[in-house]
Design goal:
It is built from 12 helices and 12 strands. About 40% of the residues lie in helices and about 15% in strands. Strands 1-2-3-4-5-8-9-12 form an 8-stranded parallel barrel, surrounded by 4 helices. By secondary structure, it is an alpha/beta fold. Residues about 1-25 have low confidence and may be disordered.
Length: about 290
C-alpha cells in the first residue's frame, strides 16, 4: 500500500506536469535557432545587417553553411570577421554545414576537412555538418557505402579537434537498394561515437517516414533537427512552422528519445520576405511549444 506521504508527493509531481501542459515541450535550455540558408540571398548582400535582423526576431543561434571551399571565406568574410559579426548581433553559432559528398572524392579530402575544422572552431561551433549528397551520386548504393567510411574518418578528425560531426538528410536517402534505404545504410554503418544525424523533419515526412519511429529505432542519434513545415497542398511544399500538416507538438514530446540538443528553423523557399517567414515560425514555436 502506498503511504499518504508518497501518494501526496506523486500527486504533486503529476499535478505540476499537467499544469505545465503542452506548452513546455521545448525546454528552457533549447533556444530556437535559424539556419541561414533561409536568408541566403540577404546574407550575400549584407551579412552583418542580416544577422542583426535575424536576431531582432528573437533568434539566439544561427547555423552557417559553406557550399564551396576556395579561400575559406563565408559571405566574403574571414571566419574571425564573421565570428565578430555573429557576436555583435547577440548570436552564437553552434553548428555549420560544410560542403557535400563530392568533397570525399578528392584524394586529399582530409586536408580540406582539416581546414573546415579550423573554420568551424574559429566560429565557436560545436558541430560540423556534412549537408548532402550531390544529385549525380544519389542513385548508387556504393555511394552510401563509401560515405559511411568517409563519415567515420571525418568524425574521428572532428573528435581529435573537440568537434562533433553530423550528417543532414533529405528525402533522397530513403530510396531503397535491395530493400535497404540509403539512410539505413548510413545510420547503421557509422559509429555512434563519431557520427550523429541532423534530422530535417520536413524531408523525412516528405519521404513518407515518421520522425518519431526513427527516434525510437535509433535513440539518441538525432541531437540536431531542422524544423520546417509542409503545407497541405498536393505539392506538399515548404511553409512556416505551424502553418502546415506536421505535428510538432507530438514530435517534440519525443525530444529525449531523439537526444535533441539544438534545432534550427529553416524554410528553403519563402512566399515573400524570408524574415517574415522566420518570424511566423518563431512566433508559433514560442507561443505553442516554448515554456
Amino acid at each position: 500500500m502506498i503511504s499518504r506521504r508518497v501518494f501526496l508527493k506523486q500527486s504533486s509531481v503529476l499535478s505540476a506536469a499537467v499544469a505545465s501542459g503542452p506548452a513546455s515541450l521545448i525546454a528552457r535550455d533549447l533556444s530556437i535557432g535559424a539556419q541561414l540558408y533561409t536568408v541566403r540571398a540577404e546574407m550575400d548582400k549584407d551579412p552583418v545587417g542580416t544577422l542583426k535582423q535575424v536576431a531582432s526576431i528573437g533568434y539566439r543561434q544561427v547555423e552557417t553553411f559553406l557550399f564551396e571551399y576556395t579561400d575559406g571565406k563565408l559571405w566574403g568574410l574571414k571566419p574571425a570577421q564573421l565570428s565578430a559579426a555573429i557576436k555583435s548581433a547577440g548570436l552564437t553559432t553552434p553548428s555549420g554545414h560544410y560542403l557535400g559528398y563530392s568533397l570525399f572524392l578528392n584524394p586529399q579530402w582530409t586536408d580540406q576537412w582539416k581546414k573546415i575544422i579550423e573554420i568551424s572552431k574559429e566560429l565557436g561551433q560545436e558541430w560540423a555538418i556534412m549537408p548532402w549528397i550531390e544529385e549525380p551520386y544519389r542513385n548508387d548504393p556504393d555511394t552510401f557505402k563509401r560515405l559511411v567510411d568517409s563519415l567515420n574518418k571525418a568524425g574521428e578528425l572532428c573528435k581529435q579537434n573537440q568537434l562533433k560531426l553530423g550528417y543532414h538528410g533529405h528525402d533522397f536517402e530513403f530510396q531503397k537498394f535491395n530493400g535497404i534505404t540509403g539512410y539505413e545504410l548510413l545510420i547503421t554503418g557509422t559509429d555512434p561515437q563519431l557520427v550523429s544525424f541532423e534530422m530535417d523533419l520536413y524531408w523525412v515526412t516528405k519521404a513518407g517516414y515518421d520522425p518519431i519511429a526513427l527516434f525510437k529505432q535509433y535513440p539518441h542519434r538525432f541531437p540536431l533537427w531542422h524544423v520546417k513545415d509542409m503545407d497541405r497542398s498536393e505539392k506538399r511544399y515548404f511553409t512556416e512552422v505551424g502553418n502546415g500538416m506536421i505535428d510538432f507538438k507530438k514530435i517534440f514530446s519525443y525530444k529525449e528519445t531523439a537526444g535533441l540538443q539544438q534545432f534550427f528553423v529553416e524554410q528553403d523557399f519563402c512566399p515573400g520576405s524570408p524574415f517574415d517567414s522566420l518570424k511566423k515560425s518563431y512566433d508559433y514555436l514560442t507561443k505553442n511549444l516554448l515554456r
